[in-house]
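Students often ask why inverse folding is considered easier than folding. One informal answer: many sequences map to the same fold, so there is more than one right answer. In these notes we will look at a single instance of the problem. The structure comes first.
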């Protein structure tokens, strides 16, 4: 007989029983509901716990990256101060921090969370950068401690000036490997969209990027020195270089008209001066020494290849060097392996390290007076321009002869050369393809048109007076009104010119004041200003004061070019301006290094 229960079950009954003994449908649903509820609660609990764990790991990673960032900033300062020997002291702490960050970001929960929308991509990015930085501290930073010896040639330069090339050659492979590792880490950091990260992670990553730029730049410089210097100083056989002294009293795009030549012979780390000549020894020729392109003929005319003085009209130093090397070989029969150009301010930097030098005629110059002696006093005291060129050649030869003979402090010389290169006052071209490829990637290569510098804008100056009055010209290129937002961010590039000659400027020798071509008043200064756009960009209107001005137009290597002429009376000044695009958060301007301004200007968005 089947049992039945009448009425409502008391609180202790879990389910009703049907005549066949099965639970009632209502109670089965109740049990399933409870199971689902408890399952959901359990899942939520797991999610909360996993979220808390993930948050804990995120805090770990953020703290570790922040601490590592402080270590990198310290290393950045050490590099700036030349204290690469202190890098090793920082490594253990940085490695420990990065090991913590790597452990946190490789946690299984972290890796699973990387598949979540939005958050996952950020977590993955932080893991990648933590791993990259950890790899760099293992592969790259130990090599940084050797940079001081490489970059400053510590212990490598003897009393006779000879450089021991073996340590440089030995250090090269390690530094090159380290630089490659540093670049991988730099790229990983640069690819992170810090705007999508939580602030605790974004700030350390942003600061790390800046510090990595310094570390990578130092390693690149070390790799270049260790790679280029041994063969260029004759480790694989003797080399000959044409040394070109630029005269900033008559401006050309590269810094000044070619004023004198010398030949440097390099062998087994020793550099000696074997020949010197003035530009009078290489007079103008009827046709260009090398074929010129239509673009070159339009912008620079055939003077570029006919007159050695004008071979630096173009802002592309490799092209100038090719023309000069070809002309030197034609006139002297001597093949050169490269061309080195330096201006008087660069010579002043060298004299800071060498101390005073005396030329073969007995004239002594030092860092304090060399610019004035070469570009002012010589024109006041020597009537014959040919004799001025000879004097210029003798002084230039004396300065570089002192460097080659071992005179001066090695660290000071390296500092002078580095400063000259960073300001565009020292330029180097190699006739050896592999070396030139490396040089063209650097600012010291001066390859504005032929190198890989597509985003750079150019503002170059060429004297139009035909005299030596640019000694009295003050120039300044600045980047202002930097806009970093919007679909097409821009900045303003300004060029300021001010001309302040002596009151008796008209009484100076005619080769100083110029011949007055085109009716130019005696004592006035004409300057041809060439504005080059970034590759593929169009030039906007060129402003002059509160108005605008137009001039000759053309193109060069995918860049738009406009040339205008400034004419200044004594005491006159002008300001030119143009709007340029902000590329990848920065603006870079290559310009003519003058007596008052560097050859480069840049601005970066915060």
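Output (designed amino acids):
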């Amino acid at each position: 007989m089947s049992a039945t229960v009448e009425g409502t079950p008391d609180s202790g009954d879990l389910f009703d029983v049907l005549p066949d003994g099965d639970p009632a449908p209502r109670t089965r649903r109740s049990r399933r509901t409870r199971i689902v509820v408890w399952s959901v609660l359990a899942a939520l609990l797991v999610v909360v716990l996993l979220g808390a764990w993930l948050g804990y790991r995120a805090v770990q990673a953020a703290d570790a990256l922040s601490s590592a960032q402080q270590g990198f900033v310290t290393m950045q300062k050490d590099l700036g101060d030349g204290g690469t020997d202190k890098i090793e002291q920082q490594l253990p702490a940085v490695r420990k921090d990065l090991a913590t960050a790597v452990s946190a970001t490789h946690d299984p929960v972290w890796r699973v969370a990387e598949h979540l929308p939005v958050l996952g991509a950020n977590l993955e990015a932080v893991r990648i950068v933590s791993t990259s930085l950890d790899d760099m501290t293992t592969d790259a930073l130990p090599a940084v401690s050797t940079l001081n010896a490489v970059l400053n040639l510590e212990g490598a330069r003897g009393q006779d000036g000879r450089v021991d090339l073996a340590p440089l050659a030995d250090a090269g492979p390690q530094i090159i490997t380290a630089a490659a590792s540093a670049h991988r880490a730099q790229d990983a950091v640069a690819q992170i969209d810090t705007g999508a990260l939580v602030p605790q992670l974004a700030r350390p990553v942003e600061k790390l990027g800046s510090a990595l730029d310094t570390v990578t730049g130092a390693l690149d410089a070390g790799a270049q020195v260790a790679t280029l210097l041994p063969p260029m100083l004759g480790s694989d056989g003797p080399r000959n270089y044409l040394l070109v002294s630029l005269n900033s009293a008559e401006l050309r795009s590269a810094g000044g008209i070619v004023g004198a030549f010398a030949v440097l012979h390099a062998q087994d780390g020793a550099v000696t001066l074997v020949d010197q000549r003035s530009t009078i020894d290489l007079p103008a020729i009827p046709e260009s020494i090398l074929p010129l392109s239509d673009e070159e003929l339009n912008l620079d005319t055939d003077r570029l290849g006919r007159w050695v003085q004008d071979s630096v009209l173009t802002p592309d130093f490799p092209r100038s060097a090719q023309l000069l090397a070809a002309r030197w070989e034609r006139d002297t029969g001597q093949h050169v392996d490269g061309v080195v150009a330096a201006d008087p301010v660069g010579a002043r930097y060298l004299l800071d390290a060498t101390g005073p030098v005396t030329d073969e005629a007995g004239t002594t110059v030092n860092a304090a007076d060399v610019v004035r002696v070469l570009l002012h006093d010589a024109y006041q005291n020597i009537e014959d321009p040919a004799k001025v060129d000879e004097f210029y050649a003798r002084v230039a030869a004396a300065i570089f002869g002192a460097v080659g003979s071992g005179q001066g402090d090695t660290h000071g010389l390296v500092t002078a050369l580095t400063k000259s290169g960073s300001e565009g006052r020292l330029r180097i071209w190699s006739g050896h393809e592999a070396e030139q490829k490396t040089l063209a990637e650097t600012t010291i290569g001066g390859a504005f048109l032929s190198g890989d510098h597509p985003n750079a804008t150019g503002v170059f100056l060429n004297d139009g007076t035909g005299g030596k009055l640019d000694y009295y010209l003050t120039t300044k290129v600045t980047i202002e009104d930097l806009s970093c937002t919007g679909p097409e961010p821009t900045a303003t590039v300004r060029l300021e010119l001010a001309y302040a000659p002596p009151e008796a400027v008209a009484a100076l020798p005619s080769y100083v004041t110029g011949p007055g071509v085109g009716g130019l008043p005696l004592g006035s200064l004409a300057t041809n200003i060439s504005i080059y756009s970034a590759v593929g960009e169009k030039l906007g209107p060129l402003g002059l004061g509160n108005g605008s001005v137009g001039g000759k137009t053309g193109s060069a290597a995918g860049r738009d070019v406009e040339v205008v002429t400034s004419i200044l009376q004594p005491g006159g000044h002008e300001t030119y301006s143009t709007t340029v695009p902000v590329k990848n958060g920065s603006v870079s301007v290559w310009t003519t290094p003058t007596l008052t301004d560097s050859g480069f200007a840049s601005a970066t968005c915060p």
